[in-house]
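Weekly modeling sync, notes
Attendees: S.R. (lead), two postdocs, one rotation student

Agenda item 3: backlog of single-chain predictions. S.R. asked that every request posted to the team notebook include the full sequence so nobody has to chase files. The rotation student volunteered to paste the first one in as an example of the format we agreed on. Action items at the bottom.

Example entry:
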Amino acid sequence: MTTNGESKFSYLFIGLGLGLGAIGGLMFALLARKETRELLRERSSKTLDYLNQHAGKLRESAEAVVEKGRKFMGHQCDAVDTHTEAEEQAYHEERRETLGG
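Predicted structure, as returned to the notebook:
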């Protein structure tokens, strides 16, 4: 059987162990928090670089598509203008024939 003095001594060791464990845990948490911030900062910068790179590729693709569309519409507009001019010329010739004879 333990005496009152021995009991207090074991409680003292348990208390010291818990206190040191708590202090160690807090120190580890502070260090881990700093490492976590650094890790998040590093990953976010890598992600931003990745997104900027792909945004540039998408921008180039979009510019190419727009340019092709402009060329296509330019040809279509030329064809429409030519078609309209041909119709107008045929109309005038038909009118001349009708009025002239």
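Discussion: group reviewed the output briefly. The mean pLDDT is 80.
Action items: rotation student to repeat for the remaining queue; S.R. to check formatting next week.
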